Amino acid sequence: MKWLPVIARLIVGGVFVVAGALKILDPGAFAVDVANFRMLPHPAVNLIAITLPWVELVAGVLMVIGVWSRGSALVITAMCVLFLIALTQALARGLDVRCGCFGTVEARKVGLTAIAQDVVLLAGAVWLLIRSDKTENGNET
Amino acid sequence: MKRAIQQATLIVMAGIALGLAANAVSPKRIPYITPPKPAVVDQNLITLEAAKELWGTGAGFFLDARAPADYAAGHIALAFSLPVEAFDEHYNNVAPMLAPDTPVVAYCDGVECELSHRLADRLRGLGYKDVRVLVNGWTAWRTAGYQTNTGTQP
């Protein structure tokens, strides 16, 4: 089962690399998506739209290449939780908005599919986090 | 876990720094602080300036939504009286002069006054396509020094 964590890392990290990169390609569109979630004070929307995709990208790249596994798993876990809150509150408030999860390449609306996908990523990230932390306390490298 | 938190903090800080730096040089850069939303343009309202211009061209049809007594005491020159409280009774006085696409300006008096909005709604309901409200119309028009009239005639 040695390959399982590697595959998990490639998938979870890879999704974050792609998601971050696609958002970076069109910051203006992502800012609109962020604003549509109506969670932030209006002036702060652009700052989040500028920085969040890069945090996704950095954490995703580190997870894929297996550097700083614990840190990247923690960041990705935290972001999955954050996205879960954002998606759930949008759905609960009945906001008919574009997910923005992968920039503008998908016009998917906020819905159960997006939430399910986020939960899967969250589960993977939590598993990797617990695993890497155990590795830290054990003697594996 | 302590190590994970340290690494995570650095990752987040690196991401933020990269994002801020990349936005400074990106051809698709956006302002760091979101600019205020442009004011929503309410197509159902008309500014005093635009109303005056329309009045000047003679193409606009001004309707006073207030009670006939208020109209008689003073109204925008060339405006007709169509008190919304007695709409059915007075509508026929102006109907022959109105086409569906005639630019109509409804007004009453006071920022809070709802008569003009109600009149505009009634007219839109009858199929008039270009009906707008001049908010606080009578006071705004009068204090701007534009032409007014008294009595029961426009």
Short description:
The complex is a heterodimer of chains A (141) and B (154). By secondary structure, chain A is an all-alpha fold.
Notes on the protein architecture:
- The complex is a heterodimer of chains A (141) and B (154).
- By secondary structure, chain A is mainly alpha-helical.
- Chain A contains five helices and no strands.
- The model of chain A has no long low-confidence stretch (mean pLDDT 90).
- Chain B is elongated, with a radius of gyration of 26 Å.
- Helices cover 43% and strands 12% of the residues of chain B.
- The model of chain B has no long low-confidence stretch (mean pLDDT 92).
- Chain B folds into two domains: 1-35; 42-149, 3-Layer(aba) Sandwich (Oxidized Rhodanese, domain 1), CATH 3.40.250.10.
- The relative contact order of chain B is 0.16.
- In chain B, the strands form two sheets. Chain B has a four-stranded parallel beta sheet, with helices on both faces. Chain B has a two-stranded antiparallel ribbon with strand order 2-6.
- Chain B has 154 residues and is α/β, with parallel strands linked by helices.
- In chain B, helix 5 links the parallel strand 4 and strand 5.
- The chains are: A mainly alpha (141), B alpha/beta (154).
- At the A-B interface, helix 2, helix 3, helix 4 and helix 5 of A face helix 1 of B.
Mean pLDDT of chain B: 92
Series of H and E elements of chain A: HHHHH
* Total of domains of chain B: 2
Q: Can you tell me the CATH class of the largest domain in chain B?
A: Alpha Beta
Envelope shape of chain A = globular
Oligomeric status: heterodimer
Question: Major β-sheet of chain A, in short?
Answer: none
Structural class of the helix and strand makeup of chain A? mainly alpha
Largest sheet: number of strands, sense, barrel closure of chain B: 4 strands, parallel
> How many domains, in number, for the residues of chain A?
1
